[in-house]
Amino acid sequence: MSGQLVPCSPAEIGALFLFEKLSPEQLGQLCSSGRVERFEPGPVYTEGEPATCFYVMIEGTVVLSRRVGGDDVEVTRTSQRGVYAGSMQAYLGDRVRQVYKNSMRVTEPTRFFVLPGEKFSEFMQEWFPMAVHLLEGLFFGSQSTQRAIGQRERLLALGSLSAGLTHELNNPAAAAVRATATLRERVGKMRHKLAIIAQGNYAPEVMANLIDIQDRTAERVAKAPTLSPLEASDREDAVTDWLDDHDIQNGWRLAPTFVQAGLDVDWLDQVAAAVDGELLPNAIGWLNYTVETELLMDEINDSTNRISHLVDAAKQYSQLDRAPFQNADVHELLDSTLLMLSGKIGQRIQVVKEYDRTLPKIPAYPAELNQVWTNLIDNAVGAINGAGGEGTLTVRTALDHERLLVEFRDTGPGVPKEIRSRIFDPFFTTKPVGEGTGLGLDISWRIVVNKHHGTLQVESEPGDTRFQVLLPLTAAESETSEELE
User: Fold this and answer.
1) Among the listed residues 382, 408, 381, 410, the one whose alpha carbon sits nearest the alpha carbon of residue 397
2) Which of 233, 271, 332, 435 could disulfide-link to 431, CB 3.0 to 4.6 Å?
3) What values do phi and psi take at 84, rounded to 5?
4) Please, are residues 43 and 105 in contact by the beta-carbon 8 Å criterion?
5) What is the per-residue pLDDT across 388-432, written as a single tens digit (0 to 9) for each?
6) pLDDT over 90 percentage in the chain
7) Backbone angles phi, psi at 350, to 5 degrees
8) Any bridge partners for residue 116, and if so which?
9) 216: how many CB neighbours lie within 10 A of its CB?
């Protein structure tokens, strides 16, 4: 927005604290290179636009605001002469993207001394070369420090996740190894039992019946019902009695396996009817090995499926094989993060999912949203553990005024009112020294607010703390492509 041009007085701008040490010649150069503009109440420039000018207020009232979600949040309101804003980093040139970092408006007729960005850069380089070097060092040094600390925060989270994932993978992997070793042993015994049966010189039709029974037994294993402990105990007693009545040795050892496989007394009666009494003990032993091998293969299948599921969740969490910016289903991201953190969450914390599955996909940086979920879940788990280790973590999604809400609710002790306004500040932490960097919530805030134009807020009272992330349902990729600052 352009204002009304008015004459530039070197004496007037020389009275502003920013220029009070300049020589008359320098003040003259300023006036000839810049201009004085009078603005009526309204906007002067908007956040995100190319930063072309440096503004110094001569008189009036200025308001600076930042965009948070869909709202402009006022950060400064002042009538102090000499305050400045605009292209304050023009001296860095094209090494930094030159855009306005906030929006500026005036609430009454206001005069500014306006200096084009390139002229501001020229004067800085010419008049204050040492200051420029110092400012450059401070700017790029702080950026480098922020990146390094942010990377450390990510590595700490990754270390925690890796430990949890290793634990989660170890259980099914160990189960598969054990089952495979046992399976090899059972198959060997099955071959041995089959050799004994084959030496009995039984008629071909008897052997055919036995093979048929084996096939049908395997089918029953695949369809075995789930029994209550009481039902299983009653059936085991009945099967044990049947085996004892038919002179099958160690029937009490065979009964639990048969019951787990879905075999009952009626099935055993069918087996007894299909083979003669002399063959029955060996047939029952052979079928026991058949049942055990089927159950072991089911266990191996379940374990390897679990491993595959965990690997898929890790890929979903890391987004290694996906575009950085995409339309994402927040529920998939939440599920993968919860699975990755399941080892850290533990058994004493109940996780409740209250998802609105009708919500659409949203344009986002999924890997970075997963980092937000990780930080918020980690904080919730820490709060619950600090209050005794038992509690509930509720993850809820919903539509909230045309924005997507993701809420993390914990039953911990709550965030004290006196520190609630500081929890998103960098390096602020309530954790003991060495246990937290104080950057988790700061990084989360910048990912949600700066990169996704969303909102991150907290509501808390003892036993009910809610961190709420509100994200736009639609956004152009260009609107979310800026680097975090």
Assistant:
1) 408
2) 435
3) -135, 160
4) yes
5) 778 999 999 999 888 999 999 999 888 777 666 567 665 445 554
6) 13
7) -85, 130
8) 53
9) 13
pLDDT classification of 176: cutoffs 50, 70, 90: confident
* Mean pLDDT score across all residues of the chain: 79
